[in-house]
## 1
Amino acid sequence: MLPPGASAGPGRPAPPAAPGERPRGRDMAAGTSTSTGPGTAPQSLQHGEREQEAEPEGGSRRWGAQHAGARELAELYSPGKRLQEWISVILCFSLICFNFYNLLFYLRLEHTPSIIVGIFAGVITADFLSGLFHWGADTWGSVELPIVGKAFIRPFREHHIDPTAITRHDFIETNGDNCFMTLVPLANMAYKFVSFSPEALYETCPWECYVFALIIFITMTNQIHKWSHTYFGLPRWVIFLQDWHIILPRKHHRIHHVSPHETYFCITTGWLNYPLEKIGFWRCLENIIQGLTGEKPRADDMKWAQKIK
């Protein structure tokens, strides 16, 4: 892992722009900068070019664990939150084991084609949902919101000003929230296995395989995200999956971490980032919500990034 604020790419500001210009993540993603194509990091990042880190008035660091906002956000991680993550992880993996055992019991050879399609559809759905949730938490809401602010929005604000903090989180802190989100569908699946007839379970087995694949990839999304910020000590099999873009690659995810963090939100596999960017999906949603509510996208995110005390 890298020391705080010393990432080889994620979290560093974009290369210095011309006077009066501000680099935009969407420009890089859409290929109007030095991007070389879908899912490819900008050329300067590919070649390891080290950009100057901007410093706000007062001389404090703009990025990393020493940033004033990052320190304040990290201190909001509470014992109650830690307990919720522990309970979520234990329940989630217990239900995963129970459901996986029952799925294997009802699988038949004739299910193979539909299972393959279901698993692929589950991965695609997980990637889209990771983007939707990531976009929502990055773009809207506030850390001051009751319950959800400190529990769920806080990590997103911290991540943009201290991107390598996630590499210092243990398994529980990294995956607790994703495990929490899968508890209801996992419990529903377990209920079916203990209450439905064998005939009904046989008929619905391909659908349950789709749901199970979706749950597994949602559960693993933040672990995959953590790996995309980790530049030392990764297992070879993880690097292989990243290099073949089976899971989110490190270079691909750097595009999101160009301020103002407005593109490439999908963080499970990243497969949907380029097509969603080409059709302007996130920008369209932002325009609709801003028009209806008057709220400015990423206003709270920018507020935390600009803290110097």
## 2
Amino acid sequence: MSNLKVTVVGAGVVGLSTACAFQRAFPNADLTVVAADIDSGIVSYVAAGYLSPTVAKMPTSDLAVLGKWTAASSEHYRAIATSADSDAAGVGISPLCELSDKPNAEEPFFAPYVFSCRRLTDDQLDYLLPNARSAGIATGFQAVTVYAQGSRYLPYLMHNLRSGGRVSVRREKLNSLAEAADGGCHLLFNCTGLGASKLCSDPDVYPSRGQVVRVHAPMQKLALHGPGAFYVLPNRDDVVIGGTAGAGSFDLNVSETDTEDIMTRAYRILPALRTARILGAHVGLRPYRRGGSRLEVDRGLLDGLPVVHNYCHGANGVGLSWGSGVHAVELATEALRSGRPRM
């Protein structure tokens, strides 16, 4: 399609993934990315970015769709992790223990999409994590999964996007999606996360406040993910320990009480972390939506202009972003083939 002009609103991991996926599919299109924040002010920068979506934290109730996103994202990250771009992108492969406080916990949803997921015997759980049972852990699954460190991966996506040509990036705080389309475009992607509450008047969008602590712990190679927003996730530059899940809270201030609680839980299961140097605590607002993520074409919002909504992935934004971005591009392709609107 010649002279195709497309706008992506939002420069978090979902917006940039969607933009890169679209650029791959339409390399000759003119692409504009519009966002109020295009750097470390974005919640994606705080994320450890492990691919381990679980039923309890699913961004959508449609398991087929979630499986599609998980499979595509897993393969995308695996390809980067095994390439020369691995370090620059902050993308890697890591062993992971999924922990549960339920004695007969079901196999995690992500099991088919990662490498060699298996239930640990009691002896194996005790061998890997001798203090887990005293901390209330009853069951464990071990797998090998992929991760993308947000503080490296987002700049990597932006670099690839700019290198692809025919891309402009505009820092602008919008009052409506219509403002992003004012310059003229044939299609618009809405990847605004929490901003969708205002920009497209979605009353179902709400935040979940997440606080993490980053520590210097090069000895910690095993990632842990468990109940009660507990996780210990090694990244390229540090280890991310969490967390909290404050539904409805917009508070971006670091809580010393939360920091103490997070580290106390971690020390109970991994006493070796007591010697780790704390680098700092960070807070981000995860974008959630009652009813699940929104991924659909909307022709009624901007006078017939196709708007592809792709927002609110909850705690799985980094992990599932590539898969949902590819899905959004598939919907966009169908919308464009059905008739390109006049600008």
## 3
Amino acid sequence: MMESGAHITRDIPESETEDETAVFENSSVVNRCTFFKASNAMTPKSEATAAPVLTSGTCLTDLFDCPVCTNSLCPPIYQCPNGHVLCSSCKLRVEDQCPTCRRELGSIRCLALEKVAEFLELPCRYQSEGCTMVLPYYQKIKHEKTCELRPYYCPYAGSECPTIGDIPTLMAHLRNDHKVDMHDGCSFNHRYVKSNPHEVENATWMLTVFNCFEQHFCLHFEAFVLGKEPVYMAFLRFMGEEIEANNFRYTLEVGGNNRRMVWQGIPRSIRDSHRKVRDSYDGLIIYRDVALSFSGSTSKELKLRVTGRIWKEE
């Protein structure tokens, strides 16, 4: 009797074509699918609902990773005529050409693989980070999108940095690779100067990291165009989960020339991208004309002093 997780193998003569090999590969998937059905059929009724649990190192689980983006495959799963599979998102990105054999993809669904997934329970892909969840395959995909142990993206906005990792890894990355200024304390006082305020581009001016309450906060300050109007914006992000960020509050104040503006809010988690926070206008927004009035200048130079503090709600 075949044991669970066993592989069906045979020698393939060199004379066989790619198409013949593909047929065998697909039949292997079908046989596995049939095995799981038969396995449940032979199990006593009290145990029949228990799906086979596979570890992340099981060879079968590798079938469910898209070879392009490496994310878990979910329906619709597509395959080329040679049996190579990929996810629907990557099918669009590769312009309907198989990334493995370069054949035209067409719209062939890999129904066998989709069916096999219904019978599997797999550990979260962030098991190595400490997640202990084991879920039915399609529930696993949903869980991984919000798993609290999934890595964070680098919060540095100016370079669209692809680096990911846990908070200590990102802190070292920001310090060593982006040369970000880091300060200890819960209050700040920064001065921003721009020689020609009429030249406003969609670019980040500055990122500063503050360490307080044994947590890390990112202060963003940048210039961009809102509609047709140049604006300056400052906001705070928390390096951690949203549920933790909600425990904190912060204020930002900009002033000068006997004028001032004050903003109070809740720091946003870095789970929310820099662009998402900026485009939601969740921060202190200063229009250029107002900024110039703070500077005591009308055209030559922009001078802004932004102060603020962070505190923890009791």
## 4
Amino acid sequence: MAKQKRKVTEVTARKKKKLKAAAEDVPGAPAAPPGAGEAPAQGAAVLGTLSPEERRVLERKLKKERKKEERKRLREAGVATAQSSLARRSGAQLALDYLCGWAQKQDNWRFQKTRQTWLLLHMYDCDEVPDEHFPALLAYLEGLRGRARELTVQKAEALMRELDEGGPGADPRLLEKTQRIRQVLQLLS
């Protein structure tokens, strides 16, 4: 067993040396201009001696280095990267779009657990789920089944007990939250 283990470590050590040597022999690849897709002749010869798996690993490493240098060059030039310029939609917007799609009975609507979870977590917050979307959310909750329904009722009851123990509050946001909890409890209980 120990002999076999030693043999495996020797093989991996040889592979690591070979990859390291190949990476050192191809220093020009990351610095090559984006249009030039070929590595130097010396690097190509080394790539030919590598196994397919080793070649993939080396190519990924070189590609990563090229991307890093490209980003660095763009940053130095003061140009924003394409990723940062694209406006990513927030989880809130995605969940509200999901809810609106359900309410409008769109053909391309599909159940998405993450969107439902987001809605269930934030349904009492007026900032996250505006008043204009709350009636649609209540209609969505009517169809809630199984464990999700049970957990929603349990959480609403726990929040209601917590708010009752806190005493009467003059905070209008707290009153709005209480009203939403009562509506959910009436609907699901």
